[in-house]
Amino acid sequence: MIKEIKPMDPLIRKLLPPQSPRPGTVYRPSQFVLKADGLIWNTLTQQCLEADLPESAQAGKGFDDLIRSCFLVPLERDECRFYQGLFALVRACQKKKGVRSYTILPTLACNARCVYCYEQDMPQTSMSPETVQQTLRYLLATHGPEPVRIDWFGGEPLLRPDILDQICEGLTKAGVPYQSSMISNGSLVTPGLIGKMTGLWRLNRIQISMDGAEADYVKRKRYLLAQDNYHRVLSAVSQMGRAGIRVTVRINVDQENLDGLNDFLRDLDSTVPEKQFVSVYFCPLNEVRMGSGDLAVWTRLHDIQADFRTAGFNVSASLLGDGRFRAFHCIADSGNVVICPDGSLYACEHCPREARIGDIWNGVTDTAARDAFCRTDQVRDNCHACPYLPLCTPFAACPVKDTHCREIRDLQVQGVFQEMRLGKLQDQNTQLC
What we know:
By secondary structure, this protein is α/β, with parallel strands linked by helices. It has 13 helices and 18 strands. It has helices spanning 10-15, 64-68, 79-94, 129-142, 161-173, 191-198, 214-221, 229-242, 261-271, 286-289, 294-310, 367-373, 405-422, and strands spanning 3-6, 26-29, 33-36, 39-42, 48-50, 57-58, 72-74, 101-104, 148-152, 178-184, 203-210, 246-253, 278-284, 314-315, 336-339, 344-346, 358-359, 363-364. It starts with a strand and ends in an 11-residue tail after the last helix.
């Protein structure tokens, strides 16, 4: 007997007709099917069933429902090619006119000097009044039919709230609907700014970067002004959550700060009694993810994440996506543009300066460079047979490569199966960059 635990992604159900069982055809489990404790989960269709999955089957032998729902596929099917075709179809259906979203850097200045910051050699510049006005004109000229989506980034965007005010006031005056999110260190949050977040800025989500317990936080953030920013930020997280803003606490980790994360949990738990608006996202630094010790770090994190969940926090399973088929995997390939303080345009905030694709005066002038960056027809050779391919970055140009990506996802998927069994799987797409 088959019991559905999680339905197929609605768009995939619409685009992918049931697979007709063919007499005489030998079927095998799809490479995209994962199994655990009597559950089978198809990472391509996102459907989860409680069922037994045979190693081999034929039509009319009692497994036709599994054939129709693509848990069993023809023995000879090239599933990577099949995925690419479905992926292209989904993207075509979801492609919209105009820019989908904007990442705006009002300033590159920052009141911290994080040890891992990739912007530390950049000039601490801010948008000039002329650039602010041209940014507004660019938004009005290029946005699509849906509400404008702005992600405020930096530097530290709260160093220049006046720029956020001017752009939001301009959109409001023009009658353009918009909403925003932000990435911030949180140290400059005040009740007055929270009022702007919930008011003029229409900010519904914010990511606050923290690095564990107080000693690790102080050592890594290196604020220019010595004050108790650790407890200030914890308090800000609580205040924004109470104001109805969804807060994601991003914890940047490596081997050196893992031991202090339980102390950080104690502090966060005691400061944030109402947790429904606060989630936690663990992010090993890129040098960890691409190094030989990445699996050891993720293994430690697996146990630590369980402690955070037990305390009542939603923990984002960042490498496993959000429970939907993903047509767009990051801002670079999703129709987003990044606007820098000088008005330059980039596909991604991590792009080097030479990857500039245009400016706010002339628009995107190097479409070839942008398209080449996120070509989705180039799957990495060692990813062709991976069951996690539909959950992963499909374009080979992405610079971030987890050394033990498959083993790490195997570790993370245990929690996903548990949540599906309990009916608690929810949107965990809190990663903003």
